[in-house]
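Saturday, quiet lab. Running sequence design on the structure tokens for the scaffold JK sent over.
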């Protein structure tokens, strides 16, 4: 079994373990019970033999012979406990209910999330990706993290995650609360960054420490008659190898690395929970503690590892109540600047949370373009009206100042074909002192009819009581002379 432990650690890049020792051994035993081949990578030959023999495949995800899982990885990790009923929506490894994003870690933590022995394991990268997506969603007012994990491996991703959790709560005001059934070692490193931690009375937290192992199997090799010959330029290249004894220098190097990890671990815990000073953390001696205990020195609550004793459902309800009454100061965070390490599949929530955004943007752009066009048309029309008014004013001044000119215009109107077709309009034009050009323009505008734009002169003529419908005269020439005479009589001038 110790060989299996060593292989599991080696499987995760030979990193020191941030996990309860007993939990790690139990975890290895469970894996071995599920799949006896879990700690050896099958060859392609083995896979072919299994196919030919009809032997069931072991459940290891890194066997090349396996197909994709029936349910996507992120959906399997989307936490929706029964007490919330139906979730409002789901995202990458999280679900939404009453403005709260729910996430859960209930397996050992890996450096990178993956499928392991048929179980979806969170990694520090998948936790960060899920939290980033959730707290960037405008519907999310807080994050509820459920933990039931003994810890995991030591990797830089946990430091990045811990700092991000502190920063996001400070910059947005969106709280992260953690309910812990077990939060030990690496899991407590994460839980310790929460604004509040709660547990049940028999739950465990703590184990703020780190360890690794070295297995010296030289005695077994001697018993089996196995002789190892090393070929290395520098002797330290193989320090810590199981086929050689551990030198004092190699032991000091390994211990120094573990101590450095614990230093960083403790500093992050103090940053997330200032009541746990470095001195208090050192006094815990990497032990884990039951939440409620008659002896204060053995109580996680009394030692400050958790904030309260309650149950998960009540703790979730308390968070939902808090964010529903204190959301005015929440500022949505900026979009994630770092790509997800494992490039998880986008969920509906990840589409900027608004499928109509592109449609609205296009409509706004079109409205702005239409406004620019209409303003340009209005400016052109105003300029044309101004020029036309100037021409009309000039014509009016000319005809008013020059009686002969006005007489000529009146005669021209009376003799025009338009006057013969519209005698009443001709009479009104002569009476108002219009020029022949103005009269013709009025006739042309009146003749458009139908869907043409309203014409002020046409409307005035149509509503004038003294003017009736135009009538076609049999003697157009005589009628034209009569029109001229009538106009001259009205203006006080003698007829010619």
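Result came back. Writing it out in full:
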């Amino acid at each position: 079994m110790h060989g299996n432990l060593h292989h599991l650690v080696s499987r995760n890049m030979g990193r020191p373990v941030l996990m309860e020792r007993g939990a790690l051994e139990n975890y290895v035993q469970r894996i071995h019970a599920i799949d006896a081949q879990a700690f050896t990578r099958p060859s392609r030959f083995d896979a072919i033999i299994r196919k030919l023999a009809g032997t069931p495949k072991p459940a290891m995800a890194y066997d090349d012979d396996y197909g994709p899982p029936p349910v996507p990885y992120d959906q399997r990790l989307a936490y929706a406990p029964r007490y919330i009923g139906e979730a409002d929506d789901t995202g990458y490894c999280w679900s939404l209910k009453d403005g709260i994003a729910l996430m859960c870690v209930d397996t050992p933590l890996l450096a990178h999330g993956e499928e392991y022995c048929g179980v979806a394991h969170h990694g520090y990268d998948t936790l960060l990706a899920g939290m980033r997506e959730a707290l960037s969603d405008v519907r999310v007012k807080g994050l509820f993290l459920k933990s039931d994990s003994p810890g995991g491996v030591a990797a830089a991703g946990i430091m990045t995650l811990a700092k991000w959790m502190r920063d996001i709560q400070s910059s947005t005001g969106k709280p992260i609360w953690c309910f812990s059934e077990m939060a030990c070692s690496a899991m407590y490193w994460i839980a310790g960054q929460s604004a509040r931690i709660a547990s049940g009375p028999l739950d465990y937290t703590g184990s703020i420490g780190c360890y690794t192992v070295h297995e010296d199997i030289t005695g077994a090799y001697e018993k089996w008659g196995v002789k190892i010959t090393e070929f290395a330029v520098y002797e330290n290249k193989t320090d810590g190898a199981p086929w050689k004894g551990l030198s004092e220098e190699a032991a000091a190097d390994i211990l120094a690395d573990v101590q450095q990890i614990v230093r960083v671990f403790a500093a992050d815990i103090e940053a997330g929970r200032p009541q746990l000073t470095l001195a208090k953390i050192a006094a815990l001696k990497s032990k884990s503690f039951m939440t409620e205990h008659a002896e204060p020195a053995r109580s996680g609550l009394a030692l400050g590892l958790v904030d309260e004793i309650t149950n998960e459902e009540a703790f979730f309800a308390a968070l939902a109540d808090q964010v529903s009454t204190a959301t005015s100061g929440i500022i949505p965070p900026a979009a994630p600047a770092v790509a997800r390490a494992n490039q998880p599949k986008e969920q509906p929530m990840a589409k900027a949370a608004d499928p109509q955004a592109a449609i609205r943007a296009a409509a706004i752009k079109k409205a702005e373009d239409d406004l620019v066009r209409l303003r340009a048309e209005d400016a052109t029309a105003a300029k044309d009206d101004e020029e036309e008014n100037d021409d009309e004013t000039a014509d009016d001044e000319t005809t008013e100042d020059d009686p002969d000119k006005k007489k000529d215009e009146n005669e021209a109107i009376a003799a025009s074909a338009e006057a013969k077709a519209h005698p009443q309009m001709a009479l009104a034009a002569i009476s108002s002192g219009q020029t022949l050009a103005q009269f013709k323009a009025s006739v042309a505008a009146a003749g458009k009819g139908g869907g043409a734009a309203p014409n002020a002169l046409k409307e005035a003529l149509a509503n004038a009581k003294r003017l009736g419908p135009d009538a076609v005269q049999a003697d157009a020439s005589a009628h034209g002379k009569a029109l001229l005479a009538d106009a001259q009589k009205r203006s006080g001038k003698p007829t010619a």
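Notes for JK: The two ends are 134 Å apart (CA to CA). The mean pLDDT is 76. Ask whether to fix the surface positions before the next round.
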